[in-house]
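seq:
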Amino acid sequence: MQNITIRKFEIEDAEAVSALIANTMRTTNVKDYTAEVIENTIGRLTPENIIQRAGWMHFYVVCEGDTIIGCGAIGSYWGKLDESSLFNIFVLPEYQGKGVGRKIVETLEQDEFFLRAKRIEIPSSITASEFYRKLGYNYKNGIKIIDEEYHIPMEKFR
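struct:
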């Protein structure tokens, strides 16, 4: 992996980020989710929705040259000053297992939303939960459950 950079999301990135999420979900998350759940999620993460999310979270993209290969965001947890959440962490399938996801989380963990928080939550996909556990996140309240949005709530305390 040559020429990898991480930068803040720009409005012009919305189409590529939305396509990256769709590609990743259809390729990687397919082992843990039905096609219906995947397509419903993709339908909610349109370019317009990504732009809207970037208005209230700090959204980052990972680029190899001019190609966006990953993304991730951090925002306040329901408006709280001492709690934040990580969102929309995706890496193109061909870059998974090469440290890109770890770089995204490390970047988010340097963001002001993370640094001010005592607790950070991740609505993890089933697919990514073991990845987050390797990075020090645990099941919320110590219980592994799948919520009504098909996420596993995870958290880390600082």
